[in-house]
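Troubleshooting log. The previous run stalled partway through. Resubmitting the same two chains, unchanged.
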Amino acid sequence: MSHALGVSRPRGLEALPEGHWLQRIDPRTRIVAAMAYAFLLVACRDLRVLGIGLGIGVGLMLAARLPLGPTLRRTLGVDLFIVMLLLLLPFTTPGQVWFQWGPLTATWDGLWRGVEIGLKAAGVILMLLVLVGTMDATRLGHGLHRLGVAPKLIHLLLFTVRYMGVLRREFLRLRQAMRARGFVPRSDLHTWTSYGYLFGMLLVRSLERSERVLDAMRCRGFDGRFHLLDSLRLGQADWAFGTVFAAGLILLGGLEWAGG
Amino acid sequence: MSALFELQGIGFGYDPQRPVLSGVDFRLEPGERVALIGPNGAGKTTLLHLMVGLRSPQAGLIAAFGRVRRREADFREVRQRAGLLFQDSDDQLFSPTVAEDVAFGPLNLGLDRVAALERVRVTLERLGLTGFGPRVTHTLSGGEKRLVALATVLAMEPEVLLLDEPTNGLDRDAAARLFAILDGLPQAMVVISHDHLFLERLTRRAVHLERGGGRD
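Second attempt completed without errors. Output:
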């Protein structure tokens, strides 16, 4: 139960330090590269090509020296969502019989289809984690802004990031106050009522805080427009990375096209 | 010379049965530093918010910089000329980076990017925060947050500073540093604080707010 409200954050995957070679590459280059990779991989059907594609992701992960355990765990974590699909596909796809289990018939076609989807998902997630997941939200927001993403979405992202920590502290304070008065979560009505109050109070406080933030913004002449100041510049590192990455993608596409 | 702020017979309450302020008169002269003191719930913060039009009084008149102010449009100009420092700096600092937060006001005033960034540089330098520009606001310490919040206010180049518990939550060193900065500023100030020593050193005059009334 206390687990459901656990406050531990996933360890090991955080923004890379300044000066890391990946951080010298502009957020825009990284976002566009990850998107291009995702579109290409989704379009590919050849398992060997998909395998090589995933290999590129793993290679980049190793080159960036990301912590292996947390990165792979998170990639697989997302894949768990489609594990049901992978288990069911052999039994629901018609084709050459693989084996029979009671009234159920599994097919090779279904199996390969499942593997194909699994490889695609793993590749795309891994690439996003390596290229986009390693930058802090500020950089991501600036990059998206320069790429022409709707300002409202970016401000939503930046405000969320800014006030997540503040809300988390508020939540921790409230929970501590509950504990200090002997609160132990159980599966009874008292526990649920108390959690209800806790989240209700959190909502009220968030609303009040948002009003104070707006007040503070009005005090500085806020008129509905935001101004983002960034210092993003495309440099040599971007051209180098972009060229190598594009070459890799063209190779992948070529293999797929030649093989199919 | 005319007063910067002149409040007459101000009445305000969130609940009409129990007014927070009633019949409050208050005057702020150019160059003056005034302490606003009183028990919790006496309406000190509310009074500052009324002065810049974040709330509207239910009774009385507010004149600022020589003109009576009633509507939201009237207060736009007041907010540029009177900077309010909030009790909780987390309310004030909402931008991803320090530079963006400090530039927010100047950009709203219509400065272009280059001029705004120059204003940011000068303001940060004056507060001993050189190099803080690219820092991410929510990773700053409490003392740093308060100074950056002050920078966001000063970057608008206000004529009056309204400070709501400026030393709240600061350790002694941070409070001393803030005092040194504030003491060196030319602006007229209205200061709310429970730190009597801080008020005695910073201000010349004190206004007592009781529940429902104001007296010198």
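Takeaways: Chain A has two domains: 21-135+233-259, 144-219. Residues 144-219 of chain A form one domain.
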